[in-house]
């Protein structure tokens, strides 16, 4: 039992020493040969990480735009057309599933793998350098160290090249994403503006038509005519009587008087008398329906009573035009 306990203690001490050696290699021994310590590679790595995060945020932002538009287009058919076009353009051109973005991402991932290999190779070189110092110049160990250093140099070169290529590719993708996103947003705003301008033109045209119709209605004279009353009866010039007895029953007989026409009236039947503004007419009969029968310029017929005004005195020159 005692021998087993001593063997376990010895093994535990060896493991602790190995852990401390590995820790020292990671913290200080790697020195200037460490890829991470190299300033240029560190800058490439940091910039590549920023570009990777930026392009990923741009991709998510474009997806959010598509989803936002798809939620907005339910409010109208015009918004549906705009949202569908924007969604298709984003899927095709806005780098959501585009080949340039995938190529740039593959370059970035390849750069990460090569960089990790370089880090591991740097640790291996440091370990072999320690063995060379302990072996007092063993040729076999020295040869392996030289091979490891050559491989490390090659990995450093590949890392630098891939870092530049990946950085350039990611920067190009980011610029294209921003440009395409801006173009899609501008196109959406322009479509919305064009749509609302067209609506405004239609409303302006409708307003103009309504105003024109209202002015026409207000300008035309209003005549109070009872449409339920049958049309005025024909006037008989031969015997001076009326053919229809319907109006005789509903009409009030009054004394003749002269009236001046204040609104022109155009007769649409043979029993209606056409009048011009300024004419004088002899009113012979007035109906309860608002129509009057009279004579003007040798013609007799019916006309709206509201179109004439009663005159008590008329010049003799005007009387000549009545009969």
UniProtKB/TrEMBL annotation:
Stretches assigned to the SH3 domain: 254-313
KW Cytoplasm (keyword) present: no
Location of the protein in the cell: Membrane
Domain of life: Eukaryota
UniProt keywords, alphabetically: Coiled coil, Membrane, SH3 domain
The keyword Membrane is assigned to this record: yes
Membrane topology classification: Peripheral membrane protein
InterPro entries: AH/BAR_dom_sf, Endophilin_SH3RF, SH3-like_dom_sf, SH3_domain
SUPFAM superfamilies: BAR/IMD domain-like (SSF103657), SH3-domain (SSF50044)
Database matches in PANTHER family: ENDOPHILIN-A, SH3 DOMAIN-CONTAINING
Name this protein carries in UniProt: SH3 domain-containing protein
